Amino acid sequence: MPGLFLGSQYKKIMRMTMRSVMRKISIGLAKESKRYISSAMTRGPNTWKDNQSSQILLSPPLVSLDIPEIWASDSNYYDHPSSWKNSNVQIATIIDGKSIAEEIRSRVASEVKRMKEYVGQVPGLAVILVGQRRDSQTYVRNKIKACEEAGIKSVLVELPNSCAEYDVMTSVLKFNEDPSIHGILVQLPLPEWMLLVQSVSASLLHLDEEKILSMLSLEKDVDGFHPLNMGNLAMRGREPLFISCTPKGCIELLIRYGVEIMGKKAVVVGRSNIVGLPISLLLQRHHATVSIVHACTKNPEQITSEADIVVTAAGVPNLIRSNWLKPGAVVIDVGTCPIEDPSAEYGYRLVGDVCFEEALRVASAVTPVPGGVGPMTIAMLLCNTFDSAKRLHGFS
Ligand SMILES: NC(=O)C1=CN([C@@H]2O[C@H](COP(=O)(O)OP(=O)(O)OC[C@H]3O[C@@H](n4cnc5c(N)ncnc54)[C@H](OP(=O)(O)O)[C@@H]3O)[C@@H](O)[C@H]2O)C=CC1
Ligand SMILES: Nc1nc(=O)c2c([nH]1)NC[C@@H]1CN(c3ccc(C(=O)N[C@@H](CCC(=O)O)C(=O)O)cc3)C=[N+]21
């Protein structure tokens, strides 16, 4: 018994010593990261030259909801100089998603080349586009071009607005079985109505997006929109096979710019299945305290102005004004809205949810639109497709 007692006492002392050592390391890390964000603001993002990692992304593949041992709160992290609070000059770093995405895409391209040499296979992405929405056609074209540049095979199935639900499902099932296809993407939104043809009669049918997404092979759901992948993202101890591209891209940007997420207050504006919801789940995985603001939220600006990190995906141009932002907040603008502009090449330009000029004077870092999150979404799609091919071919 005394031996046992001594054993447990010893373990306890060891645990306490380890905790104090870890806390010191943690404080050291926090100080280090404070130094890093200020240098990040002048020197730009973290790159592979800084981090000699062989992996493509800097964010961890999956983050458990368990708090790591080294956690120590650092509530003063976002205390910025008072000059930040009423400044008329730009103080924010512009987060350059475009160049980070380019770096990731070229990294994927060289990994795809390596895969081709060793396995004799390249990753394959199938895209199913229903209807003639111009913005969807543009996004799909960009995704296919990005695949080509990375050496990823792509197959596009274009179905008319008047196709039957059966046609979409047949395409999904065909790609589920095709061994040269490692990722399947059904471009959203789907048209609300489809034509159901039964022998001689035809009727309009409400298109069941959930049914179609549920039919995707879990192993090929590179968008991460399958209810099981989404559910696993939400649940402690579960791991989705894929994390949705846009949220994954947002986290990668935060990590590359040295923004600490753990213990920070984050506000997500928007709660859609494809953006708002998975972003809020992923931020929780990274141990942020997350609030969600949506169209029915009262005093949204007050809630948002308490956040250290704001991720906005409402699709409302210039919704986020300077009074919505805490001085020094990091702002990730997912919103992408076309607005008329006769002086622009195509008669329109893209704007985000954030009033960019105002955010530049209040935030510590902000993503532009275009050139912020959008290119990262495409880069993450390539990463997910490559990861899927790696998994299916046992390539590492
Ligand atoms: N850059 C990228 O890679 C991507 C960009 N996008 C862009 O992101 C934006 C959002 O897309 P998506 O999520 O599909 O859009 P949805 O329309 O599906 O969702 C919008 C969300 O924003 C909320 N919302 C709308 N108006 C307000 C408001 N005034 N105040 C607070 N919340 C509001 C809605 O609330 P409620 O639920 O109450 O209705 C809803 O949850 C779009 O501009 C889209 O183009 C989307 C995907 C990728
Ligand atoms: N199944 C599915 N998966 C998606 O990921 C998906 C979808 N459906 N439906 C629509 C939204 C929207 N989306 C974008 C992707 C790239 C840019 C992008 O690259 N934007 C560029 C500008 C592009 C341009 O100039 O047109 C930028 O912001 O710099 C934007 C938006 C993915 N979505």
TrEMBL record:
Q: In which pathway does it act?
A: One-carbon metabolism; tetrahydrofolate interconversion
- The superkingdom listed in its UniProt entry is Eukaryota
- Quote any Pfam family the record assigns: THF_DHG_CYH
Quote the Gene3D superfamilies the UniProt record gives: Leucine Dehydrogenase, chain A, domain 1, NAD(P)-binding Rossmann-like Domain
The reaction(s) this protein catalyses: (6R)-5,10-methylene-5,6,7,8-tetrahydrofolate + NADP(+) = (6R)-5,10-methenyltetrahydrofolate + NADPH
Q: Which UniProt keywords apply?
A: Hydrolase, Multifunctional enzyme, NADP, One-carbon metabolism, Oxidoreductase, Photorespiration
GO molecular function terms listed in the Swiss-Prot or TrEMBL record: methenyltetrahydrofolate cyclohydrolase activity; methylenetetrahydrofolate dehydrogenase (NADP+) activity
List each copy of the Tetrahydrofolate dehydrogenase/cyclohydrolase catalytic domain by range: 95-223
UniProt keyword Transport, yes or no:
no
GO biological process annotation, one example: tetrahydrofolate interconversion
Gene Ontology CC annotations of this record: cytosol
Pinpoint the Tetrahydrofolate dehydrogenase/cyclohydrolase NAD(P)-binding domain residues: 244-391
What the protein does?
Answer: Catalyzes the oxidation of 5,10-methylenetetrahydrofolate to 5,10-methenyltetrahydrofolate and then the hydrolysis of 5,10-methenyltetrahydrofolate to 10-formyltetrahydrofolate.
Assembly and interaction partners: Homodimer.
Q: Which family does it belong to?
A: Belongs to the tetrahydrofolate dehydrogenase/cyclohydrolase family.
Which HAMAP family does UniProt cross-reference here? THF_DHG_CYH
Name of this protein:
Tetrahydrofolate dehydrogenase/cyclohydrolase
- Organism this protein belongs to: Corchorus olitorius
